[in-house]
Amino acid sequence: MIQIQNVNKAFKGSPAVQNLSLEVNEGEILGLLGANGAGKSTTINMLLGFLPPDSGTVKINKLDTSQNTQEVRRLIGYIPENVNLYPYLTGIENLDYFCRLAGLKYTKAELQKVLSTCGLQNEAHTKKIATYSKGMRQKVGIAIAYAKKAKVYLLDEPASGLDPLASNEFSELLKKLAAEGAAILMASHDIFRVREVCHSIGILKKGELVKKLQSKEVTANELEKLYLEFMQN
Amino acid sequence: MFQIIKNEWLYYSRTRLFLGISAGFILVLLFSIFLGSYQTQIQTENYQTAQKHLREQWESIKEMNPHGAAHYGTYVFKPANLLSSLDEGVNSITGNVLRVEGHVQNEIVHSEASQMQTISKFGKLKSSLLLQFIVPILLIFLAFSSISNEKQSGRLKLLLLQGTSPLQLIFAKTLSVWLYGLALLCTTILVYTLLNIQNINSEIMSRAGLFLLTYSFYYFVISGLTVFFSARWQNPTLALTSMLGVWILWTIFLPHILMSSVEKWHELPSRNEFKVAMKEDRSKGVDGHNPSDERKKEFEQKVLKEYGVDSLSQLPINFDGLVMQADEEYGNMVWDKHFGNLRVVLSEQKQSYQLGGILNPFISLQNASMGFAASDNLHHQDFLVQVENYRRDFIKMLNDKHAFGGSKTGDWSWKAGNEFFKSVPDFEYKPTSLATVLSNYFLDFFILGFWVVFVLMLLILGTKKMQVL
Hints:
The structure holds two protein chains of two kinds.
Chain A: E1 2-11, E2 14-24, E3 29-34, H1 40-48, E4 55-60, E5 63-64, H2 69-75, E6 76-79, H3 91-101, H4 108-117, H5 134-147, E7 152-156, H6 164-179, E8 183-188, H7 191-197, E9 200-205, E10 208-214, H8 220-232
Parallel strand pairs in A: 3-8, 3-9, 6-7, 7-8
Antiparallel strand pairs in A: 1-2, 1-4, 4-5, 9-10
Helix pairs in contact in A: 3-4, 3-5, 4-5, 5-6, 7-8
Chain B: H1 2-14, H2 16-59, E1 63-64, H3 66-72, E2 74-77, H4 91-94, E3 97-100, H5 127-143, H6 148-153, H7 155-161, H8 166-195, H9 202-232, H10 236-265, H11 271-282, H12 294-307, H13 319-355, H14 361-372, H15 377-404, E4 416-417, H16 418-423, H17 434-465
Antiparallel strand pairs in B: 1-4, 2-3
């Protein structure tokens, strides 16, 4: 579903992504680990069609993201580190608004069902987003992508700053989405969460994919050790 | 696009600060409309009372020498157009009372500005003051962060991922802000209509419609330009600063700079020069009150020849009336020449100033606003011309009565009766036609249209320059 082949991207001559190749299939969750400036967000922005690669190809569902931007965006659900929604709207109003922008019209009951599926408690649906915690806003973000029937989820540090309970709920939600057939790429610093949620893991260093492995191949401690080795070398 | 506009209006309706400012502003706006309508109504009533009183005085003349009556004269009042309660234009400085008498074309006097205790830089509180200066500021404050806030919060990415195009977003944000301005405009026109419902006619409604259209063009320019800056700059403060700079330039500096330049390019004679030139030319005419005047003697010979008599005493008419009328006609010719020249220069100034709208749409807005509210110099000049034409007919009627009414030359004690004075028509102002107004303000309208197209192009360009990341 997600295909990145031999991609290079530089900013003012400074390489951000170098010769990157990776694939994420339907039902798969790929975790991208890396320090700040490793190229995680640049990779996601290329997948979103906001940045064109200097060379190589970035495809979603076999469509080039820089040439078929609008078609590709219809398939993508994007959850940034902070899902900033409209604070004067309630959760359900925000979801309704974003759905309508995508040309989708749901009944109130359908919208409530989507929010509940994404883990937002019923009593929060009609409260203004200004009163939401970060975890609740992330759930509404997921709900927007879910309601859109996104086939690909791109997550940029989505669980950063969440309390353990919210983080755990969020992980369960991602597993559920993958089980329904979504391809998920998650950029994160959180080694333990990535090990727990993702099927496969890539370690990025200075724009290069220095290691790719399956989660089940390593324990969380081994992954941490491996990650630190790569970062220190 | 509709969804974005709807969402923006939800934001407005749920923001207490916005609601508070809007409510306060609408109250001031309503007050200004009420005050403007009340002032116009009072002014009209006062003028009607004064005009009626003067007419009664005129019609109560039992017996009087017609030329004496010409010196007695009358007064004419400039009627206030209903729409001038929205935009007072030049009315407060031009004066509104004109004395009509023989031998002399008096200047209009009693301007409101000359009788005010304090003169504000921006004039009296009229709807136009709020609509031209304050509403654009409100629109700027509504629009300056419309795109940059979406960028800074990261919502822009989400919006684009939902299939919204940058162009849709920019247009929707512009229209949302513009609709707010339009709502204030419509409120103004609606309240004004309700307050003046008994006097509204199709011409006033057409003018009000054009007034509304002109402002709506200008508001689109302000809204679009602010949204463009918001899309162009990452920082909303920079967008606000840029747009406030444009507002200050357009409303404060450029109008003065352009007006001064126009006055230099098409210079009017000084008041003194003009008066001296008029007096000099006027002195070359027949002096009806000076028996030894050479030109009077020439005219006398001509009249005697015409009637086939040898002396004035043999004339079947009163020569004094003829000579007074000849003097009038000469004076009229001098007036036409000098004021004609003055009007040519004024017209050139107006056209050049109108072209200044290419640099500053605020100029086009002010011109068209005054024009459609009938408070501009065009309407004022039209009034002066109508009064002068009336004066000429009025004095000619009196002189003709003096000459052909049955008296003999030199018989200054002869008097016309009350019936005659009653038969002299009163001044009746004919409002400037809408077609004339439109032809005079087409350029301003066209320039505002040009600005709308220019801003539309900027917005399209803005989508290309809009930085998402």
